[in-house]
Amino acid sequence: MRAGARQSAATATVHEHITDAVKSPDLIRLDGDVVLARFETMKVYAALGAVRSLLRRGRVVPGQTLVDSSSGIYAVALAMACHRYGLRCHIVASTTVDATMLAQLEILGATVDRMPPSQSLRLDQELRVRHVRRLLAERPDFHWMRQYHDAVHHEGYREFADLLTASLPEGPLTVVGAVGTGASTGGLARALRESGRAVRLVGIQPFGSVTFGSEQFSDPEAIIAGIGSSIPFGNVHHELYDTVHWLDFRHAMAGAVGLLRRHAVFAGLSTGAAHLAASWEAERNPGRLHLVLGADTGHRYAERVFTRHTEALDPAGLRPRPIASLEALRPPWSVMEWGRRAAPEAARLPEQGSPAPVPTVEMLP
Q: Domains of the chain, with CATH numbers?
């Protein structure tokens, strides 16, 4: 990493809005070949880039209401972007959205419909989507952001790619991050590759996610819905991914607690899972820089993860089970060379006879 990558207080930038401040990550070297991009909330790149693009193209206008379904951090990011650009925000919230996030949304001026408790992640997601469709039928002036499907959410990550190009040494790079909606890992990897950089993309998935074929499993303790999905997402482009790791809750917890214990970094479960996977990847590929995407802080996991830190497994003794096909997939931690192949059948959208090609989208200047 270049010396002086972080500005001194004497030359710090005065930002015009909080979104400019929180979207930029802290780059922290963990081990020799592993660097963490630690965000307060990485979804600001997706929400801010999408809103700017929609306004520029005339697809939305100031004062209009933007609506979407969210399991947490995207909701706050969208509310912040709407606050900046004079738009209204309506969130259909998952049962996983906690009281702190609800308070932030309400103070930011967003209106919130919270779904009742569900028996499964799939039911929760389906109920939220149905509710959004009912809202749109009643209020056709609402604009549905469709964070899971609209490629506009990839656009803001080009700015992040430019930041990394300016801050990290040249050479091959492995990006390790939770797949989730596909926007962050996919948008970042595509932008870096288009700049000419050799990039391996390593995706993190929970068991029970349809996105990369683990829907036959369940993880009763899992509270990391944001890194996987029980329904197909159009923004996930499987052809971008080189390797996939599937980790259960206990391994993600080990990674998150280990990150705090060893490096004093307080981050969420998806970051913990990515950190654990990146450490293993770096051992196998010494000399290659590995970038861990730390999507958010650990605050919303405090009670169910960090207060239980004495139960956490020792990361030093954990290793994945390498597999050659999805038929061999097993908990608690499996890894497979995906090889930029197409989506598994269950992860394809109903209207797709085959996986959609990677879209060409207009990027922010």
A: 9-42+154-347 (3.40.50.1100), 44-151 (3.40.50.1100)
